[in-house]
Structure to design on (452 residues):
């Protein structure tokens, strides 16, 4: 059998899929029962994890929210997934649970404490998607702070992760909790310590006041593919989410593996998951009909509002018949600007049409179960990726993927059944190891602390 594919499911606590279609249920995103049902179905179908993306942003162009964004529910409203996760932990026992916390907004001790708590509550099934924050122009307004430039946000993220790693790996020895009721000893003071950090952006002398969970450091994910984003991933990430065309993704993966070796890590220690949209139905014809219905629910105005959320760039004021001006700069997200520049750049109209069809996620796989898995196998072979981050279907959930694609993947021997008791890291790395690999910078913090 080939190395099993890793299968994660992408969600956000907002409108997903084509919410205007009558079969779409993402309008229930503020109902806990919606999430509990989804998590149980994901677990029963044997996928590796459910990822709840998050940010504080919303579309803003020329200092205002485009009316199309509010009218059509584009990237807003959006609820806080960290409030939903404990309920999902309670009703699952194998499903990994991954969420986002922003290094631009949440301070390291807050991230470290929330994630360590969730690692306990999930019994080692939690992952952190490290982001500098999508929709940054809106987020900065919301927090009343000047917008920090793109590359500097990644410098802050690097220092943030360094301190967070110290808190997870350095404060508590493995055998610090004694729990001797007779002697009245809860924890051994010799095995618990404050860490010190004096970095370019964060300073701390402190103790993480929750002991680490089964993974110590939550499994670390990252999703920015600009130069500084790639470096952050290469240095710390154990899983990377990518959304692009196959050719761009192939380059991103090989470049990030190369950068990982420059940081002294095994290039294979990062698992790359392609954002994959599967438009699947029992027959090919039904799948293509569904695709046409989905595209018809989205206007070019909405595509422009969505593009502005990811990039801060307003395509609606540009000449539709020319490519995006190559001198355009943005301090919001760069990946979705850079992928449409350069030789053979598409026109603005083509970019909008691409966003109307696919948003940031690249072209979908369309067809019956056999056809979509053939297409997915070809993408895996071309890119060298390790699996998929599956996008919600037209219903806003994953029912068609879980019911039609998972059995096909299993029949082809491409996935293995997750087991109770596995940590998220152990499962995704495939070696059962709960803790960071020895070549990860966080492992050196643990080694140094355990020698104290
Ligand atoms: C599949 C995927 C998931 C993402 N999830 C989040 C998220 O939950 N929160 C967020 O703020 N940004 C998220 N992003 C955006 C990235 O973190 C990043 O800001 C964006 O890709 C722009 O990259 P750059 O900052 O390197 O230019 C996601 C991106 C991708 C491709």
């Amino acid at each position: 059998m080939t190395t099993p594919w890793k299968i994660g499911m992408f969600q956000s606590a907002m409108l997903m899929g084509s919410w205007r279609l009558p079969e779409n249920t993402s309008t229930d995103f503020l109902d806990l029962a919606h999430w509990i049902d989804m998590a149980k179905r994901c677990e029963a179908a044997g996928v590796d994890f459910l990822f709840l993306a998050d940010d504080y942003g919303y579309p803003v162009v020329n200092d205002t929210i485009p009316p199309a964004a509010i009218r059509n529910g584009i990237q807003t409203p959006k609820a806080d997934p960290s409030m939903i996760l404990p309920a999902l932990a309670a009703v699952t026992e194998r499903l990994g649970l991954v969420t986002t916390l922003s290094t631009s907004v949440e301070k390291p001790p807050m991230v470290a404490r929330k994630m360590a708590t969730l690692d306990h509550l999930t019994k080692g099934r939690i992952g952190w998607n490290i982001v500098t924050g999508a929709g940054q122009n809106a987020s900065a307004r919301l927090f009343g702070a000047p917008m920090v430039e793109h590359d500097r946000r990644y410098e802050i993220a690097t220092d943030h992760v360094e301190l967070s790693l110290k808190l997870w790996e350095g404060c508590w020895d493995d055998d610090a909790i004694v729990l001797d009721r007779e002697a009245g000893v809860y924890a051994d003071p010799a095995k618990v310590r404050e860490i010190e950090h004096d970095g370019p952006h964060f300073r701390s002398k402190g103790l993480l006041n929750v002991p680490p969970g089964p993974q110590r450091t939550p499994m670390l994910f990252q999703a920015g593919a600009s130069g500084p984003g790639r470096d952050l991933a290469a240095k710390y990430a154990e899983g990377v989410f990518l959304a692009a065309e196959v050719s761009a993704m192939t380059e991103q993966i090989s470049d990030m593996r190369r950068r990982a070796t420059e940081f002294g890590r095994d290039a294979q220690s990062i698992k790359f998951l392609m954002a994959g949209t599967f438009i699947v139905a029992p027959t090919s014809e039904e799948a293509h009909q569904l695709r046409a219905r989905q595209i018809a629910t989205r206007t070019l105005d909405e595509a422009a509002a969505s593009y502005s959320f990811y990039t801060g760039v307003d395509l609606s004021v540009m000449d539709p018949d020319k490519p995006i001006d190559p001198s355009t700069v943005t301090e919001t997200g760069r990946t979705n600007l850079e992928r449409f520049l350069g030789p053979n750049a598409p026109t603005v109209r083509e970019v909008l049409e691409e966003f109307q069809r696919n948003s940031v996620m690249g072209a979908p796989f369309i067809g019956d179960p056999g056809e979509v898995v053939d297409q997915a196998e070809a993408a895996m072979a071309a890119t060298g990726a390790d699996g998929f981050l599956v996008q919600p279907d037209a219903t806003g959930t994953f029912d068609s993927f879980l019911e039609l694609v998972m059995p096909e993947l299993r029949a082809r021997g491409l996935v293995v059944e997750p087991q109770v008791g596995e940590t998220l890291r152990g499962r995704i790395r495939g070696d059962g190891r709960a803790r960071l690999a020895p070549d990860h910078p966080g492992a050196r913090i643990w080694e140094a602390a355990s020698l104290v």
